[in-house]
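Q: Sequence in, structure out?
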Amino acid sequence: MENTSSISGLVTRGCRLLTAVATRFQSPLLLALRLYWGWQFFLTGEGKLMHLDRTTGFFQTLHIPLPHLNAWVVGLTECIGGLLLLGGLGARLVAALLAFDMIVAFLTADIDKVRHIFDDPDKFLGADPFLFMLASMMVFAFGPGTFSLDWLISKKQRRKS
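A: Exactly. Output:
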């Protein structure tokens, strides 16, 4: 009986240690995620804006209403949103907008991959919007972490109150 309780205590301490170590990796991981994917969003948005005629033409082939306006909106959302994500400013709101952008991309440009999400998940997981969407959803769910402008602003607000 005593042996079981010591094993249980050891497992409990091990789990606490593992949790403490993993928690220390949250903010650096979120920083790396935001830096990489924020920059990727910026580059894709910049590409859409720099080649607006091609983006508009592509949106027309997808039968997206107001293709020129939507090319501007998507390009600006990705370009500005990517920079905000990079700095961790308004990160959860920006991440929600970028995730929505990627969901629309799936439902328009990659709808065939969405249709086969269960019978051929590799197509869905390999589609261009997937990792962008996943990164956005992670920042939305977990926040930007302590290495962000959001955290600095909230820290300053906590000091005032």
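The mean pLDDT is 95.
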